[in-house]
Write a structure and sequence with these properties.
InterPro entries: DBL_dom_sf, DH_dom, Endocytic_GEF_Adapter, GDS_CDC24_CS, PH-like_dom_sf, PH_domain, SOS1_NGEF_PH. Keywords: Cytoplasm, Guanine-nucleotide releasing factor. The chain has 21 helices and nine strands. The protein is α+β, with helices and mostly antiparallel strands. Among the domains are: 215 residues, Dbl Homology Domain, Chain A, CATH 1.20.900; 129 residues, Pleckstrin-homology domain (PH domain)/Phosphotyrosine-binding domain (PTB) (PH-domain like). Strands 1, 2, 3, 4, 5 and 6 form a six-stranded mixed β-sheet that branches. The protein is globular, with a radius of gyration of 41 Å. The N and C termini lie far apart (136 Å).
Length: 541
């Protein structure tokens, strides 16, 4: 009976809640009297009814607010609008009025647009260099967040580059006419572009500067300062390294801008020849900067190598001036390796940290490129390890793999390496094949340059005579001691004129009977050519 009575009370409360609404013509009662209806419910011990009453009371408080007035959130600081990452760019044609636009041809407008883009880019570069100095360098030095030596290593000599670009802007301003057009720009850039060689030291130091900046970001003070700058409107949501990398990205744009100006320059314009010369100058400057940067990057990673055994050291590593390719790969057991392909040596390493210093521990024996054998493996040819589950499953078939090894297996073990995707695998294969082809071409050219004509003639003569004598022995089927060629290093030995000569030279160390039996039977055509060659050789002797 008690349960039935409680159920009836609950039903009565729910029915009253439906009858609460009054016609809209009546006046709305004050909030206090309305909410008091919820208090008329007699307290009961049933938890469900108590929760229903609390919900009803909360709903009355929510309905008492005016529907047309939005709910106000607690007072908080208004969020500042997110600044754009790019500046608002303006075209040259937008600076002219309608009457001026009609006086220029379409080709001339495009030419002036390209010149205006060059000038506007110089202004933006100067602003960014000044910003990097005033908003980052000087405050961190004043607040002792970094030392002066560290800031010099990261920022370089930025002050020396600002006048360089200001000078170009001044010359362009002098060449600008009253109508806003630049008549001739070729001579200006031809005289100014060689001064960009000043960026060689800056670009060469970028790798070390980036590594130092990443290391200093571990300091909470540095991280907090850089984060505050990133959230400030002046940064345009760009971090510090983006500002430090702007000069390098600006350098690679000069050839594109000059080619665009040249494309819209008429053939009979005085700037035609000057712009072509300017493009050649900037390409030579960029090539020189790339060489210096490559040498600096190569030396940076060589200094980071750590050897476990003195036998791993190779003089060719210290003498390398260029790093062809490097990146993270996995070996057959699933270990992450950082592989470096220098011009003459392939080095496999493991990244380690020693006293907060990142370095690369040399893994196994480095492989000289001249002794390197490359194998392109198909997907599924090799199963990669690295997990307990993978040892018992057939689904983990390796993809994007290749193998490198010594020509002589006794010099070191082979390495099966895996990359992330097909694109990176093809890049590695191309770099390795190009390096092997370059070393082969260099060895051939060195052999030809070191060998004198007399040596080449004597080697050819001895090889031919030995071939003739060996051929006579084979024909007569009578073993006699074979006449071998003069002993010389294999690298200096020129290619023999006939296949029989090669067979004789390779078997000269064995006995005459074994060499005669091991040679394949010659055809009549080969015998006739050898006999005629022997007659010509005897005549020459």
């Amino acid at each position: 009976k008690r349960k039935r009575r409680e159920k009836d009370d609950a039903d009565a409360v729910s029915l009253c809640s439906f009858d609460f609404k009054e016609p809209c013509t009546k006046r709305v009662r004050p909030l206090g009297r309305v909410t008091s209806l919820a208090n008329l419910i007699s307290p009961v011990k049933n938890g469900a009814v108590r929760r229903f009453g609390q919900t009803l009371q909360a709903s009355f408080r929510g309905d008492a607010r005016s529907p047309g007035v939005p709910q106000q959130k607690p007072c908080s600081k208004a969020a500042a609008p997110t600044p754009p990452k790019r500046r608002n760019s303006t075209l040259w044609s937008e600076t002219l009025d309608v009457h001026q636009k009609g006086t220029f041809s379409t080709k001339e407008i495009k030419r002036q647009e390209a010149i205006f883009e060059l000038s506007r880019g110089e202004q933006d570069l100067i602003e960014d260099l000044n910003l990097a100095r005033k908003a980052y360098h000087d405050p961190m030095l004043k607040l002792s967040i970094m030392s002066e030596e560290e800031l010099t290593a990261i920022f370089g000599d930025l002050d020396a580059y600002i006048p360089l670009h200001e000078d170009l802007l001044a010359h362009l301003a002098k060449a600008t006419g009253t109508d806003g057009t630049v008549g001739q720009i070729g001579k200006i850039v031809v005289e100014w572009l060689p001064r960009l060689n000043a960026y060689r030291a800056y670009c060469s130091n970028q790798l070390a500067a980036k590594a130092l900046l990443d290391q200093k970001k571990q300091d909470p003070r540095v991280q907090d300062f850089l984060q505050r700058c990133l959230e400030s409107p002046f940064s345009r949501k760009l971090d510090l390294w983006s500002f430090l990398d702007i000069p390098r990205s600006r350098l690679v744009k000069y050839p594109l801008l000059l080619k665009e100006i040249l494309r819209h320059t008429p053939a009979d314009h005085p700037d035609k020849a000057s712009l072509e010369e300017a493009i050649s100058i900037i390409q030579a400057v960029l090539a020189d900067i790339n060489i210096k940067k490559g040498e600096s990057e190569c030396q940076y990673y060589i200094n980071k190598l750590e050897y476990l055994d003195d036998r791993q050291k190779d003089t060719r590593i210290e003498q390398c001036k260029s790093l062809l390719c490097h990146g993270e790969l996995r070996n057959k057991s699933g270990t992450k390796l950082h592989v470096f392909l220098f011009t003459e040596v392939l080095v496999l390493t493991r990244p380690v940290t020693r006293n907060d210093r990142h370095c690369f521990q040399v893994y196994r024996q480095p492989i000289p490129v001249q002794d390197l054998v490359l194998e392109d493996l198909q997907d599924g040819d090799v199963r990669m390890g690295g997990s307990f589950r993978g040892a018992f499953s057939n689904s983990d078939k390796a993809k994007n793999i290749f193998r490198v090894r010594f020509q002589d297996p006794s010099h070191g073990q082979s390495h099966t390496l895996q990359v992330n995707d097909v694109f990176h695998k093809q890049q590695w294969l191309n770099c390795l094949r190009n390096a092997m082809a370059t070393i082969k071409d260099l060895s051939i050219s060195e052999t030809e340059s070191s060998a004198t004509p007399a040596d080449v003639c004597s080697n050819r003569r001895s090889s031919t005579v030995s071939a003739i004598i060996h051929m006579e022995e084979t024909d007569e089927n009578c073993p006699r001691p074979a006449v071998s060629a003069p002993s010389s290093p294999s690298s200096e030995e020129p290619p023999s004129p006939t296949p029989s000569a090669t067979s004789t030279l390779s078997s000269s160390s064995s006995s005459s009977s074994i060499s005669a039996l091991s040679l394949p039977r010659k055809s009549k055509k080969d015998k006739r050519s050898l006999c005629s060659l022997g007659k010509r050789k005897e005549t020459m002797v």
